[in-house]
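Lecture 7, part 2: worked example. A protein chain together with iron/sulfur cluster.
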Amino acid sequence: METLLSIKELGVVYHTERSKVYAVNGLSLEIAKGESLGLVGETGAGKTTTALAALNLLPKSAERSGDILYEGKSVFHMRERELLKLRGGEIAMIFQNPLTALNPVFTVGEQIEMVLRAHGGGKNRQIRERAGELLETVGIPRYRLKDYPGQFSGGMRQRVGIAAALASSPKLLIADEPTTALDVTIQAQILELMKELQLRSNMSLLMITHNLGIISELCQHVAVMYAGTIIEYGEVAKVFKNPLHPYTIGLLGALPKLDGPRSRLTAIPGRIADPQNLPPGCPFHPRCERCQEECQSKTPGLAAIEEKHFVSCHLYTKEVRP
Ligand code: SF4
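Predicted complex, written out as structure tokens:
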């Protein structure tokens, strides 16, 4: 499959008054056209920072290294005009709280129309017609175009957020915990809708979540993040059936079946690595029951264990060494 977004050895350090925060540490990842990839990890693992970096939206104070290529072109070296086309155009993003993306003083129709005008234009009547179609696509009758975001429930607002995101016909949709704030029934409806829309439009999807059930329902591939880097990556079926990294095994707990009930992350002893004070060697070693001497000083690299299944752990690199 053709690569759409390629993240190469991304590093992001935030400078605070007193210290440095190592949010992303040498992360490499690719998303192909039409692919759905889940980025999973605990809060503070660097998931959202990675998404913001893909849109070149990191604060100016952030120190970054590595590169991110969108259709072969460096996002970090794009001009302002190219970035405007990229953000909300080629790449759209939906957030946990749609109210942060929707302006309360404009009707939802006006907001969807603004996106349509910015990315393609057309006559007023055509734009209004398209806005109505988009609202209907997400299951909301078009007469509600004249309503304000505050007149919608949480689940309906997220649907509006998805309609607005789709207005630019993005090639990549980044969804950052889009259903966390919603109740379970509405969550299921929104996920079903996203799955259907992604398949229908062949859009790529980067789903950022801490919920493994969402990944198993929606994604072809999964990348497990810990302390700002990928520690396991592969096809969802392979990783869920045969998790290798002790952290992934901990996340999956009792190894739920793909068709089993949706599960949230199980608790893993200890705390997530402090990004202001990362441990040497494997960043997971202070929490790892299988930690060995070399884990405390040597950082493991990501190695292929089977086809389309990679892990960053000394246990496996040892096993595969000749
Ligand atoms: Fe555990 Fe060592 Fe593997 Fe890290 S490298 S996950 S400490 S066994």
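Residues 245-246, 282, 284-285, 288, 290-292, 295, 300, 313-315 surround iron/sulfur cluster (CB under 6 Å). Residues 254-258 have pLDDT under 50 and may be disordered. Keep this in mind for problem set question 3.
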